[in-house]
Amino acid sequence: MVKVYALAVAEKGSPVKILASEQDLASFSFFQRGSITEFINFFTKTVVERTPNGQRSKIEQDNFLGHIYVRGDGLAGILVADNTYPTRTAFSLLNRLVDEFSAKFPDRDKWATMNPTTTAAKYPELRQHLVKAQDPESADPFMKVQKELDETKIVLHKTMESLLARGEKLDDLVTQSDALSSASKAFYKTAKKTNSCCGY
């Protein structure tokens, strides 16, 4: 199961300022959480500083994967997860996150007084995004549709195999069918021969 450890919004500048941050470190021991929080904050500031405006980055470190999106105006979204988290889902979430943050807090001058502790009460949606991101399918509707298509394809293949599993072959069914004209049967045989020549 995939795991998202942190979501953050930061402003690129000198130095980088973390404006909002939420973490889920329940899978770590109590004594490790302080060090992991420090590492995530350090990671956030370092990668935001080094990622050009308007760019996305993906950085892997040990079993962690950091996804970073720095918008053209220097507002950045950061997602820290395990190394199996889907990239497309992460960047889709970060896009929505920075857009939502800038819409909720449009006055950039007030960002100077923000910090993750005070912002948490004003921006509870960040916590909701973190919880929702734990299930990539619910965080990314396209991923859910892709999974449904894959499952449908598997079911379709199994259904075809079960229909023909009784010792019947599609060739025999076509030959015995009264529903197909002679031209359709000839077309099927010609297509099958042509396709068999193209096989590897």
Automatic annotation (TrEMBL):
Q: How does it sit in the membrane?
A: Lipid-anchor
The chain positions of domain Longin read 8-127
What GO CC terms are in its UniProt record? autophagosome membrane; cis-Golgi network membrane; endoplasmic reticulum membrane; endosome; fungal-type vacuole membrane; SNARE complex
Q: Mind listing the GO biological process terms from this record?
A: autophagosome-lysosome fusion; endoplasmic reticulum to Golgi vesicle-mediated transport; intra-Golgi vesicle-mediated transport; intracellular protein transport; vacuole fusion, non-autophagic
Keywords attached to this entry: Coiled coil, Lipoprotein, Membrane, Methylation, Palmitate, Prenylation
Any one GO MF term held by the record is: SNAP receptor activity
Localization in the cell: Endomembrane system
Question: Where does the record place the V-SNARE coiled-coil homology domain?
Answer: 141-200
Q: Which Pfam families match?
A: Longin (PF13774), Synaptobrevin (PF00957)
UniProt similarity note: Belongs to the synaptobrevin family.
Q: What is this protein called?
A: V-SNARE coiled-coil homology domain-containing protein
